[in-house]
Amino acid sequence: PGSLEAAAARTGRRFGSAFAWGPPGHDGGTFANPSYAALLESECAILVPENEMKWQALRPTPDRFDFDRFDAMMAYAQAKGFAVRGHNLLWHQPKWMPRWEESYNFGTRPASEAARLLSQHIDTVCTRYGTRIESYDVVNEAVNPADGTLYETALSRAMGGATATLDHAFRAARASAPHAQLVYNDYMSWEPGNAAHRAGVLRLLEGFRARGVPVDALGVQSHIITQGPDTARIVGQLQPDWSRFLNAVTAMGYRLVITELDVRDNALPADPSPRDRAVADFTRAYLDVMLDYPQLGDILVWGMADRYSWIEGFEPRPDKAPRRPCPYDRAFTAKPMRTAIVDAL
Ligand code: XIL
């Protein structure tokens, strides 16, 4: 009853986390690590694979699929009764496409080859897992935060451009997974430097509606960043633009999902205790804004424990103090951030 999952359920929502594959007993954020699995099982109702469903993982070559790791994760999730989100069917950035994509020489192949590859990918994944996956990040991070334009990849150039490619992905997902919630997932945020990113996402979502593309929800990744200890003042500055953005998104009829919540503890001294306090306050303030929207459904963190968070590798603190982005610390003890989530709910 005291779990994050139960707290979310009281508001008609589900709480969940990313998880990974690993060999038995592996010291990682995996179901095969008993300490981590215990956290998942006590706190979560829904899980999402951190990397194992991406093209790089599932599709080592254009003509071969490798489902072993993700199948093992699905088997665990099913055995324990978790709901599962799919992440993702297309990570629309050159650097996140599989390595073979850039050298596939679409120009020397039939014009339909790029569309065939994309359709085949989405259909193969969606058909394999059927109703076991309830919600998909169909397209991930297609908007360039620098200017709000859509990225182009070798695949999208061969399909006549990004817009046609993203539309195609959603239509293919709807056809192959008619039961599933289809999500556009991105990291636009409430940071002050993020206006162009937000505007680009809004344009994309407007375009989907104008063209009748089947998109159900915006995935708000929520890799949020503290800017100092004075949470009330900082949030007071960030919140108005962010609420305007969320109002515009929901006014178009989109639902919202918090898909990857974690906190980067920037502009805070290294001492863990006040740092955890500020992270918790910031989390609470952020969730208070988000939870005002009845359109917000599932809330997932990008990892339950600091020990395995991707943030350490992605952006270490300049002073090298270990990052503390998650609800549980490196020894699997609950942090103030966990309490903040319960209190916000
Ligand atoms: C990250 C994983 O956590 C890392 O392990 C991997 O090296 C790179 O990808 N936005 C997303 C996620 O949509 O897929 C990313 O996950 C984090 C940012």
TrEMBL record:
Keywords, in A-Z order: Carbohydrate metabolism, Glycosidase, Hydrolase, Polysaccharide degradation, Signal, Xylan degradation
Source superkingdom: Bacteria
Protein name per UniProt: Beta-xylanase
Similarity field: Belongs to the glycosyl hydrolase 10 (cellulase F) family.
Reactions it catalyzes: Endohydrolysis of (1->4)-beta-D-xylosidic linkages in xylans
Organism ancestry: Bacteria, Pseudomonadati, Pseudomonadota, Alphaproteobacteria, Sphingomonadales
Keyword Cytoplasm: no
Source organism per UniProt: Sphingomonas echinoides
Pfam short name (any one): Glyco_hydro_10
PROSITE patterns named in the record: GH10_2 (PS51760), TAT (PS51318)
SUPFAM superfamilies associated with the record: (Trans)glycosidases (SSF51445)
Ranges where the GH10 domain occurs: 28-344
EC number: 3.2.1.8
